[in-house]
């Protein structure tokens, strides 16, 4: 891969995390436990889709306009998506929605906080814009984790179950591969290895406050960044891509 | 109805300030279990399109309202006091927002 292709792929990875989580959260529209929480979740979904749009526009530019941001979002087969496995996990119940958001937002606060210093000025400016949104996502998810974890026996049970079920998808967030290494060398990408300790501390603090237990060490799932996804991804894409597949270039 | 209220949490009144220096104006209300959640829900419900620079929330239970049965006594006497309106001044040219 030349340096352009590497940067293009980096944008897809970041954009896909935002796009796929945005799609997952959009599924909650009209299904929130109360009206206000419905709005909160779909607000976060829109933040995610906005971030994906910015990153895909940049990817399209890097690619010389060969494919538009919409092409990138809606017209790739499953194995070309580069998101982490965590964000494609289904909503299951409200506790899973919150646990997923807690894990990813705690990571993104650190990641985009670091990307703000990128030598690539466009990535740096996308990071500066998005970090404000992420801080709110983290606060929202942390507050709910504490509320549910330190709530009734049923809410404690469900929150702990979600925290445990999604734990195996968190290791992948900190993996470095050749694309990460090369962009780190050129001062564009983020060094994720030092982030894991800070992330664990943050999660530990929230879980203690929520009277929940940190999951034990276990085998960590991986593969999203290489395009190897869990069985949930195909279903998500078939819904997300339906319109562009059935009516290519549809306008309204 | 009682049951529904239990499910939906307490009601909080929301006041939004659109620009620094302007008053906080009543925007509506939200449901929330605590003040932190009330501020977040107010933010998500009422400031999504850039309406606000500051939010106040107050438990609806803590709002004291005037009694509608006393409306005549409270508000009618001001109806015929035109001299209380500052409409008799000639504004200098260029003066705005008076």
Primary descriptors:
heterodimer, A: 252 residues, Ferritin, 11 helices, 65% helix, globular, B: 98 residues, alpha+beta, Ubiquitin-like (UB roll), 3-stranded antiparallel β-sheet, 3 helices
What does this structure look like?
The complex is a heterodimer of chains A (252) and B (98). Chain A has 252 residues and is mainly alpha-helical. Chain A has a single domain, classed as Ferritin, CATH 1.20.1260. Chain A has eleven helices and no strands. Chain A is globular. Chain B is 24% helix and 22% strand. The model of chain B has no long low-confidence stretch (mean pLDDT 87). Chain B has a three-stranded antiparallel β-sheet with strand order 2-1-3. With 98 residues, chain B is an alpha+beta fold. Chain B has a domain of 61 residues: Phenylacetic acid degradation B (Ubiquitin-like (UB roll)), CATH 3.10.20.520. The interface between A and B is medium-sized, with 11 and 14 residues.
Strand order of the largest sheet of chain B: 2-1-3
Low-confidence stretches of chain B: none
Describe the largest sheet of chain A.
none
What do the pLDDT scores of chain B average to?
A: 87
Number of DSSP strand runs of chain A: 0
Q: Do you know the CATH topology of the domain at 2-62 in chain B?
A: Ubiquitin-like (UB roll)
Largest interface: A-B, 11 and 14 residues
Helix count of chain B equals: 3
Shape of chain A: globular
CATH-level-4 superfamily name of the domain at 2-62 in chain B? Phenylacetic acid degradation B
Rg of chain B (CA only): 19 Å
Reconstruct the topology from this structure.
The complex is a heterodimer of chains A (252) and B (98).
Chain A (H helix, E strand, L loop, with lengths): L2 H24 L8 H28 L6 H6 L10 H4 L5 H22 L5 H29 L3 H15 L10 H8 L9 H15 L22 H9 L1 H5 L6
Chain B lengths: L1 H7 L1 E8 L7 E8 L2 H12 L7 E6 L11 H5 L23
Antiparallel strand pairs in B: 1-2, 1-3
């Amino acid at each position: 891969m030349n340096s352009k292709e590497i940067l293009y792929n980096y944008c897809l990875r970041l954009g896909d995390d935002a796009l796929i989580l945005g799609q997952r959260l959009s599924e909650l529209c009209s299904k929130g436990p109360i009206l206000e929480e419905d709005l909160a979740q779909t607000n976060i979904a829109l933040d995610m889709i906005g971030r994906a749009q910015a990153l895909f526009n940049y990817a399209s530019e890097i690619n010389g306009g060969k494919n538009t941001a919409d092409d990138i979002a809606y017209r790739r087969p499953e194995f070309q998506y580069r998101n982490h496995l965590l964000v494609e996990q289904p909503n299951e119940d409200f506790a899973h929605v919150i646990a997923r958001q807690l894990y990813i937002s705690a990571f993104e606060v650190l990641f985009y906080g670091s990307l703000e210093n990128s030598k690539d000025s466009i990535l740096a400016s996308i990071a500066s814009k998005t970090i404000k949104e992420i801080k709110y996502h983290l606060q929202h998810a942390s507050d709910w984790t504490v509320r549910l974890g330190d709530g009734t026996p049923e809410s404690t049970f469900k929150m702990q179950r979600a925290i445990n079920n999604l734990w195996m998808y968190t290791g992948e967030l900190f993996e470095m591969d050749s694309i990460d290494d090369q962009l780190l060398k050129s001062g564009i990408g983020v060094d994720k290895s030092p982030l894991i300790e800070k992330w664990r501390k943050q999660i530990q603090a929230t879980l203690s406050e929520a009277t929940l237990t940190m999951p034990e060490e276990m085998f960590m799932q991986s593969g999203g960044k290489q395009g190897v996804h869990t069985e949930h991804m195909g279903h998500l894409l078939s819904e997300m891509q339906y319109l562009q597949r059935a009516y290519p270039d549809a306008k309204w | 109805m009682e049951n529904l209220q239990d499910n939906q949490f307490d009601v909080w009144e929301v006041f939004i300030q659109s620009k620094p220096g302007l008053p906080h104006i009543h925007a509506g209300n939200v449901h929330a279990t605590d003040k932190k959640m009330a501020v977040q829900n107010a933010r998500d419900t009422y400031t999504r399109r850039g309406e606000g620079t500051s939010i106040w929330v107050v438990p609806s239970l803590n709002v004291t309202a005037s009694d509608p049965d006393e409306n005549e006594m409270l508000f009618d006497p001001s109806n015929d006091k035109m001299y209380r309106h500052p409409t008799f001044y000639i504004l200098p040219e260029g003066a705005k927002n008076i």
